[in-house]
Amino acid sequence: MCFEYSIAHWFQKAAEHVFGCVLCAPGCFSLFRAAALMDDNIMHKYTTTAVEPRHFVQYDQGEDRWLSTLLLKQGYRIEYAAASDAETYAPEGFEEFFNQRRRWTPSSVANTIDLLADYRRACANNACISRIYILYQFCVIGFSMLGPAIIFSMLLYAQVAAFSRKYGSNYRLQHGTSWILHIYLLCDGEQYPTVCGKSPSIGYAFVMLAVVVATCSQIVLETMFSPTSMFVVGMIFIFLFAACLHPREFTNIIYGIIFFLMIPATYVILSFYSLINLNVINWGTREAVAKATGQETKKESKLETKLKKAWNGATGTILRRKEKAGDKRIEELERQLEEVKIAVQRPNSFNDSQIRENELAEKPWEDEEVSSDVSEARTP
């Protein structure tokens, strides 16, 4: 997530800022002018309750993108401050990541199409939105639509070059895998996103790893001017150059290895998952299952229950062994402390009377003064 968040700002936000204005101000690290929010046709329309199906996608699934679209249409400019620092929470699990992108992808497409459909009004009201900027957004949305097909073709050609297989057989294999994935997503994609997304993603990650190894060997042994080699080398160079321009975030480039292996998952599987689950309108991130779906939490299966019992039994045995070992250690320390105490008290084994006699023998005048004071106090 660190790498993806970084390149999204290094490239997309920066390009939008230079060419015109940013299309989306994320709510987690954005500042808005109160006067702009309370302007006509912004907050009043922003609080509109979704009724039509497209409203649920455009209004509710990406509320920050919807607010940004309203601000741009009204004539305000959204800028990207690259020097600012902000912190936010990112998805920490596979299912949470898929649910987040299930909301983001359709919402981004819907709001971009809404802005492009009303481009005359946007250009007339907003001096930062030009026709060239609108053309740029047309290209972006077009390549986004073609993204799964482009990645599919790249995977197909890379596997042919890496594994020396025939193009026809490899094409049928990839096409059949895609159809199986589509059917499974249509049947149980929303209920089991982890199974539908994680399993093929891991499989494609191993394929990408094999492609990387084959590409490296091709560059070393043959030439780097093949399409696959040039694509990989060019992409690595672009990312490294962008990371050098952002030295404080340079370490995020390390996670680019995982991002590269997950390209089929993020551009192909995730696109299918988002489009097939357009009917799902809950957020699904950082929510309890019952709160997100309005249903009771799914009961654990027998296998999960047995695994938990086995795990608890194993951990309980380990903890009990540690407690016994700790008790023995404490007893040993107490015994050692008792021995030290006896050894310290042994040379000073005098009773109180002997100690008092020794003190009086050394300082007899103190006792006389005390006795005289007592006698004087008793004199009437």
From TrEMBL:
Biased composition (Basic and acidic residues): 354-364
InterPro entries: Chitin_synth (IPR004835), Nucleotide-diphossugar_trans (IPR029044)
Cellular component GO terms held in the UniProt record: cell periphery; membrane
Subcellular location: Membrane
Protein EC: 2.4.1.16
Residue segments, region Disordered: 351-380
Record's bilayer topology term: Multi-pass membrane protein
GO MF annotations, alphabetized: chitin synthase activity
Stretches that traverse the bilayer: 133-157, 202-221, 227-246, 253-276
Enzyme class, UniProt record, top EC level: transferase
GO biological process, one term: chitin biosynthetic process
Keywords of the record: Glycosyltransferase, Membrane, Transferase, Transmembrane, Transmembrane helix
A Pfam family it matches: Chitin_synth_2
PANTHER family membership: CHITIN SYNTHASE (PTHR22914), CHITIN SYNTHASE CHS-1 (PTHR22914:SF12)
Protein's recorded name: chitin synthase
Species of origin: Mesorhabditis belari
